[in-house]
Amino acid sequence: MSEISEEQVAHLANLARIALTPQEISSLTTELDQIVDSIAKVQQVATPDVPATSHPVPLSNVFRPDVVGETLTIEQALQNAPEHDDNRFRVSAILGEEQ
What we know:
The chain is mainly alpha-helical and 99 residues long.
């Protein structure tokens, strides 16, 4: 199978601007090598007659009817707001001058 070297891991970390200790480089080298080997094994059994799947169990969405239920009045929604202006919450501006 393929061999991932510590130099390759260090190079990729440098490109991604990730500071790694020598121990982390060694650990990641082993882990990435195992991942590449696992992918190679999957590619060996992935033949054209095996359909691609994203999940081993068929999934389906469960929807409920969209029914309007009991809602808060404007007064109830605003009763604990620190500040409000008519029918709206008042909040401080969060955009900087560069926006």
